[in-house]
From TrEMBL:
Any GO BP annotation: microtubule anchoring at centrosome
Keyword list, A-Z: Cytoplasm, Cytoskeleton, Phosphoprotein
Protein name: NIN
Subcellular location: Cytoplasm, Cytoskeleton, Microtubule organizing center, Centrosome
Keyword Cytoplasm set for record: yes
Main location: cytoplasm
Species: Bugula neritina (Brown bryozoan)
Domain of life where this protein originates: Eukaryota
GO cellular component, one term: centrosome
Length: 93
């Protein structure tokens, strides 16, 4: 009978050790799961922010192109207009 008691105690101790290891492993797994979940959410937010930024960049590039075109047109008109003004001022004196 003493042999059975000893075996039972050894088995209980072994079971307790395995249970404790499994609890620790479960805690680690839960922490890892939470980290992965947080990273997934952060990644989704970053992808959305990137999409918005790229959209704003495209709008800004279009606006810059329109402004550049207007600027070049004004410079051309100014260049064409200035000789006439200079000639009229010099002939008027």
């Amino acid at each position: 009978m003493d042999d059975y008691k000893r075996r039972l105690l050894v088995t209980r101790k072994s079971l307790s050790e395995v249970t404790e290891k499994l609890k620790e492993q479960m805690l680690k797994t839960t922490k890892s799961d939470n980290l992965v979940r947080e990273l997934y959410i952060e990644n989704a937010n970053l992808v959305e922010a990137l999409f918005v930024t790229e959209k704003r960049q495209k709008v800004a590039e279009k606006a810059q192109f329109r402004h550049q075109t207007k600027y070049e047109s004004l410079v051309k008109e100014f260049t064409n207009f200035m000789p006439a003004v200079i000639n009229s001022v010099s002939h008027g004196q």
